UniProtKB/TrEMBL annotation:
Cofactors (names): Zn(2+)
GO cellular component: primosome complex
Highest taxon listed in the record's lineage: Bacteria
Name of protein: Replication restart protein PriA
Organism this protein belongs to: Sphingopyxis alaskensis (strain DSM 13593 / LMG 18877 / RB2256)
InterPro entries: DEAD/DEAH_box_helicase_dom, Helicase_ATP-bd, P-loop_NTPase, PriA, PriA_3primeBD, PriA_3primeBD_sf, PriA_C, PriA_CRR
Encoding gene, per UniProt annotation: priA
UniProt EC number: 5.6.2.4
Residues at which Zn(2+) 1 binds: 431, 434, 471, 474
Pfam families attached to this UniProt entry: DEAD, PriA_3primeBD, PriA_C, Zn_ribbon_PriA
GO annotation terms (biological process): DNA recombination; DNA replication initiation; DNA replication, synthesis of primer; double-strand break repair
Catalytic activity line of the entry: Couples ATP hydrolysis with the unwinding of duplex DNA by translocating in the 3'-5' direction; ATP + H2O = ADP + phosphate + H(+)
Function in brief: Initiates the restart of stalled replication forks, which reloads the replicative helicase on sites other than the origin of replication. Recognizes and binds to abandoned replication forks and remodels them to uncover a helicase loading site. Promotes assembly of the primosome at these replication forks.
Residues annotated as binding Zn(2+) 2: 440, 443, 458, 461
TM region(s), chain numbering: none
Length: 722
């Protein structure tokens, strides 16, 4: 009889033993469906010796596996990555496994789906909407939902077109062939510096060995062009390439850019995909047919058949850190994947994380630099506007020098960008009469006014309500006032000052789909926008040659809050957004509104002294034992019942581990004391780099009993301290 130990797709259990039905085989890594009580559940056949090698279950108690799923087995290096991730981030292995095997992995790729395509017949009644829709669909084929998305119309319009015979149903196999990228399609003419950098990357891919390379080039130096050479090398070698991006909004422009370089779009992977697209993508990735994959961090764990290189673009971005479920950092896990699979990992950034630079210094990462912009474009001039000396008019947010600069660009027909990392109209609504502030009922957070949609919204839990007319506290009428600016409010000021200017507000509210992102890019490129007002979403990736002015509306915003990376993040964010200016022939100017122009980070930005800033920051971190020279981990205990949460936190606190060099802070109410209706208490651990934090935490957490109503979230190497 053959048995199989299976790691199931559930957080609650370790591996379980099963019997392999007669006539079937289930070698290590096989994807299977197994019985679990009355349920059917997916899983992967695993080594007996993993996860503490639990004792085997007696033959007589084994249940039969239901099915061996006909997809390629999960390879050993990826199984090791699952174990490592589970171990390092203190997450159940079943939760990690789910990232490899989303539901679509179990959907039969060969089962046909009904798709639709144009028949060439035009409906008798042609509305303008139908004309546009058919134009956009062209020769493409897809489900009703996909075509609706493609044509930017409702599904009803598509169904209407089917009804009148303009579209016909076809049975499509879900594993439609992926187009083959052609590395020789349109290679760029690289500059001498770029050529040297690209040669190093190509050689690393050809060597097919683990190595981490930090591609550190100023904004506009052509990092993307250069790492595409590494991808070309991987494709040439018959391998797959993965590019991780920090935001979904960046994927669409990147797909277009790849299409220009390789002759076809790569395969995209992110949470915005339709389930049919997702199914197609997953199976193409697992079979090796998807040669280039561009995706968000969730693309990292997929079972690539023949991965040859991983690129992490904008590698300094903290959005690579997942803040729920498995709290992993995609940049760090990418490096581990490279290690287990024996392949190069390229981290690209104009403002590398201190962590990455420390690895370079320690000799563990190779440093590849591109110190100049491509094509003779120069880096922009940065200057600070001291808001204490040059304040904006009352109730306004733009200081006179910035207003003048905007007027100047409008006159010259050049584009400007105003950056403020705050969505909505105003971050706080306050009663003038009684001082009441409108707070989210579920979170320790203010409700943010979104005037464009007439709503107050909580940015933590998504709770929305109409803006009240009466103060909920004193019931005074029309006493509520908006405090502070968000991008919408800055846009109002721009409209007031420059009624003729064409503006675009760019936030996750306005660029919620890849299609909207693509539309925004096209509008700016065609010169249909004069002033962009945006959040961090516009700080990176974009290349608008006619954009010559960047205004940072509130440079001090990120410095509040006492986050250990506050200065570093401020530096990166402002350097990145500054990098959008002057990328063409015309030089760029950057004006930074601040109340602390003498703060080291502002002074370094204005002086263009990146090395000095990083050196000072590194010294300060080293002295404080902060990352990357020391380590943190956070334990957040939450419950709907505050007493339960407090009780567990206190019992845990009473058993806090004691060790040389280890400091345990708390328990204390977390800064975000309530989130989604749950009360939160936090314990923070601080230890030297070499300390076994994971082992310590594991033993500690096991030392108390956990009531069912309390939940524990563990965050190793936290980036968010709320
Ligand atoms: N060798 C080249 N030939 C033609 N165009 C190039 C070349 N190198 C760079 N470019 C162009 O210069 C612009 C900037 O390059 P790219 O976007 O690759 O820079 P980057 O370093 O990734 O920038 P950022 O970090 O600011 O996003 C792009 O429009 C790119 O196509
Ligand atoms: Zn809330």
């Amino acid at each position: 009889m053959t048995r199989a130990r299976v790691l199931l797709l559930t957080a609650a259990l370790g591996p379980l033993d099963y019997r392999v039905p007669q006539g079937s085989e289930a070698p290590l890594g096989s994807v299977v469906i197994a019985p679990l009580g009355p349920r059917r559940i997916g899983g992967v056949v695993w080594e007996d010796e993993s996860f503490g090698a639990p004792d085997p279950v007696g033959d007589n108690r084994l249940r039969n596996l239901y099915e061996i799923v006909p997809v390629p087995p999960i390879a050993a290096p990826l199984r090791r990555l699952v174990e490592w991730t589970s171990d390092y981030y203190l997450s159940p292995p079943g939760s990690v496994l789910r990232m490899l095997l989303p539901g679509v992995a179990f959907a039969d790729a060969r089962r046909p789906i009904v798709e639709y395509r144009a028949t060439g017949e035009l409906p008798a009644r042609m509305t303008p909407q139908r004309t546009v829709a058919l134009g956009k669909i062209g020769a493409r084929q897809g489900t009703v939902r996909e075509l609706a998305k493609l044509a930017d119309v409702s599904e009803a319009v598509i169904r209407g077109l089917v009804h009148v015979g303009a579209l016909e149903a076809v049975s499509a196999s879900a594993d439609q062939p992926c187009p083959e990228p052609d590395p020789a399609f349109a290679p760029p003419d690289l500059s001498a510096e770029q050529t040297a950098a690209a040669a190093q990357l190509r050689a690393a891919v050809a060597a097919a060995r683990f190595e981490t390379l930090l591609l550190d080039g100023v904004t506009g130096s052509g990092k993307t062009e250069v790492y595409m050479e590494a991808i070309a090398a991987a494709v040439d070698a018959g391998r797959q390439a993965l590019v991780l991006l920090p935001e979904i909004a960046l994927t669409e422009p990147m797909l277009t850019r790849f299409a220009a370089r390789f002759g076809c779009e790569p395969v995209a992977w992110h949470s915005g995909l339709r389930s049919t697209e997702r199914r197609r993508a997953w199976h193409a990735i697992a079979s090796g047919e998807a040669r280039i994959v561009v995706g968000a961090r969730s693309a990292l764990f997929l079972p690539y058949a023949r991965l040859g290189v991983i690129v992490v673009d904008e590698a300094h971005e903290t959005s690579f850190k997942q803040e729920d479920g498995v709290h992993y950092h995609a940049r760090d896990v990418a490096v581990m994947r490279g290690y287990f699979e024996g392949l190069p990992v390229i981290l690209a950034s104009a403002t590398p994380a201190l962590e990455s630079l420390a690895q370079v210094e320690a000799g563990r990462y190779r440093h590849i630099q591109l110190p100049a912009r491509f094509g003779g474009a120069t880096l922009p001039d940065l200057a600070a506007i001291d808001m204490r000396q040059d304040p904006p008019d009352r109730g306004r947010w733009l200081a006179p020098p910035l207003v003048d600069a905007l007027a100047d660009r409008l006159e010259k027909g050049e584009q400007s960008l105003l950056f403020l990392n705050r969505r909505g109209f105003a971050p706080l609504t306050l009663c003038r009469t009684c001082g009441h502030r409108i707070q989210c009922p579920n979170c320790t957070a203010w409700m943010v006014e979104h005037r464009l949609v007439h709503r107050l919204a909580c940015h933590h839990c998504g709770h929305v309500m109409p803006p009240p007319r009466l103060c909920p506290e004193c019931e005074d009428e029309d006493s509520l006032v908006a405090c502070g600016p968000g991008v919408e409010r800055v846009a109002d000021e721009v409209a007031l000052r420059f009624p003729e200017a064409r503006t675009a507000i760019v936030t996750s509210d306005t660029l919620w789909s890849p299609a909207r992102a693509a539309e925004f890019v096209a509008n700016v490129e065609q010169g249909l926008v004069d002033i962009i007002i945006g959040t961090q979403l516009v700080t990176k990736g974009y290349h608008f040659p006619n954009l010559t002015l960047v205004g940072v509306v509130d440079a001090d915003l990120g410095l509040d809050g006492g986050d250990l990376r506050a200065s570093e993040r401020t530096f990166q964010q402002i350097a990145q957004v500054a990098g959008r200016a002057g990328r063409g022939v015309k030089p760029g100017e950057v004006l930074i509104q601040t109340r602390v122009p003498d703060a080291p980070v502002m002074a370094a930005l204005v002086a263009g002294d990146r090395d000095g800033f990083y050196a000072a920051e590194a010294a300060a971190r080293r002295a404080a034992g902060a990352p990357p020279y020391g380590r943190f981990a956070a334990l957040v205990i939450s419950s709907e019942d505050i007493e339960v949460a407090r009780g567990v936190a206190q019992r845990l606190g009473a058993k806090a581990p004691v060790a040389d060099g280890l400091a345990v802070y708390g328990p204390a109410p977390a800064p975000l004391a309530m989130l989604r209706g749950r009360h939160r208490f936090r314990l923070l651990l601080h230890a030297p780099r070499s300390f076994d934090l994971q082992g310590t935490i594991r033993a500690w957490v096991d030392s108390i009993d956990w009531p069912a109503k309390a939940r524990l979230a563990i965050d190793v190497d936290p980036y968010s301290f709320v």
